[in-house]
Write a structure and sequence with these properties.
Oligomer: single chain
Helix content: 55-70%
Radius of gyration: 15 Å
Shape: elongated
Length: about 90
Amino acid sequence: MKKEIIVGLLFALGSTGVALSADDPIATRKAMMQNVGAAAKAGGQMLKGETEFNAVAAELLLRTMNTASLGIGELYPEGSEEGGKTTASPKIWE
């Protein structure tokens, strides 16, 4: 059971299909936010008891969120306000 949870979590976190690249900050930040969403969902399921708690999986999802929080600011450079089907709020650049 624990192995299945960890494999599922890793698959969810790595299944964005987008290569992370400084050349495309919009695609990179979208992929990062998808990973954070998957981690939050998995964590929420554990907290609600919908999924069995697994300390290794919990650590992985917390590391995913922490890593995203450390680098997300660099993914909003000037000039990335539009294009790439971004849904980032214009308030970010104010």
